[in-house]
Specification:
Layout lengths: L3 H17 L4 H8 L3 H8 L6 H11 L3 H4 L3
Helix pairs in contact: 2-3, 2-4
Length: 70
């Protein structure tokens, strides 16, 4: 099974929510405890774990399930 489209959609959703909050990649990465370069990979749908998604959701002040609302 190819999960790459799911990762890409999740990355796009994170990018959308980040921009909606008026945050830069660097700002959200810092709030989520992530390195900026790694965060770029997340938004590109290249590398994300459930723990990372959870940390991003917390940094955005939303439930993890909202990240998957696409």
């Amino acid at each position: 099974m190819n999960y790459l489209p799911l990762y890409r959609k999740l990355g796009e959703r994170i990018e959308y929510l980040r921009k909606e909050e008026g945050l830069t990649q660097e700002e959200l990465a810092e709030k989520a405890g992530l390195h900026r370069a790694y965060f770029w990979d997340v938004e590109q749908g290249k590398n994300i774990s459930i723990k990372t998604a959870y940390n991003i959701a917390r940094a955005l002040g939303i439930k993890l399930t909202k990240l998957f609302d696409f």
